[in-house]
Amino acid sequence: MPNEIKSVDDIDPKYQKDYSDESFWEKVKGVLKTAGLPLIYKAIQLYYVMMKPECPIHIKAAIVGALGYFISPIDLIPDFIPFVGFSDDLGAVAAALVLAQMYVDDDVKRKARETIDNIFGAGTSDGLS
Asked: How far apart are CA 63 and CA 37, in angstroms?
């Protein structure tokens, strides 16, 4: 299928060092307390949108860029700074969500909530829509 991402090289090689499934899930697991549940939830939604075969390659490219930025240890605002450290990551994720919004359906939201509950414990996703 032409829309499937087989590797990050298919989109933009400069994100190859920052984006991978493994590094994405490591980041998600490691930053819940500092990044906050809403950012994690939106990032996971983007991940599942990116896996949809019907999602166009230009939207997948934007998602890889946003998630690569989220994963990257080099940000405009370092993640370790209290209260503002993830604000730039949130901006990147939000921009990609604007582009991908039409693909964020109930199935994507359900998968994202289930993933959060599987990683962080049952009920963690309560209240997320």
From this structure: 19
Could you read off the pLDDT of 1-47 as tens digits, one per residue? 344 444 444 444 555 557 788 888 888 888 887 788 999 999 999 99
Whose structure tokens read 């829309």? 3
Please give the model's pTM, rounded to 2 decimal places.
0.81
Longest dimension (CA), the chain: 43
C-alpha 18/C-alpha 3 separation (Å) is 21
At residue 45, what is the residue type?
Answer: Q
Which pLDDT score is estimated for 22? 87
For the chain, which residues make up each domain, given as ranges?
A: 8-118
Which residue did the predictor score with more confidence, 1 or 107? 107
Instruction: Give the integer Cα–Cα distance in Å for 65 and 18.
Output: 9
Matching residue, tokens 């190859």:
16
Determine contact, residues 77/84, Cβ cutoff 8 Å. Answer: yes
Nearest Cα neighbor of 35 from 75, 95, 65 is 75
